[in-house]
Amino acid sequence: xxxxxxxxxxxxxxxxxxxxxxxxxxxxxxxxxxxxxxxxxxxxxxxxxxxxxxxxxxxxxxxxxxxxxxxxxxxxxxxxxxxxxxxxxxxxxxxxxxxxxxxxxxxxxxxxxxxxxxxxxxxxxxxxxxxxxxxxxxxxxxxxxxxxxxxxxxxxxxxxxxxxxxxxxxxxxxxxxxxxxxxxxxxxxxxxxxxxxxxxxx
Length: 202
Known about the structure:
Number of helices: 7
Largest sheet: 7 strands, mixed
Distance between the termini: 20 Å
Helix content: 40-55%
Strand order of the largest sheet: 1-2-3-4-5-7-6
Shape: globular
Order of helices and strands: EHHHEEHHEHEHEE
Number of strands: 7
């Protein structure tokens, strides 16, 4: 496996994490469905989306990691800290309306539909893992995942949960011990599917 150092960081590095997430999620099926538009414009919207998320209190209880070379980042929710509260939604709504217009309602309904299927047993939740596009395919994603699993769920002998809408990533997660739990279609036929994955405690 690729040898790379990952450092835990605080709010001071959120702008860097936003950039990594926006670049890495540019082709994500759910984000493409939500943001729409041409690729260049979609990346601008993604920066605004992740900036909005970072600007709420939603990330205050999460753990943030970035690779030493700035190529990858991950966001982990602590056990029982993954829920989106009504307050989180209300604080985020004006920003989402400004970014997506009426599409914000569709996006928030989609997020709520997925969260409603979130498993109840205690676990760590990998909220997001992204690798810059010019660094993809080099093993950086696998290294980022392995580092996070070793630091948190495995150290605490706890299960891990994630959600993915990009089938290209399934093999990465399955090699790390995740199994597909459920597939959730967002809306009608042709809309993207979110696949939930679970990894038992180690």
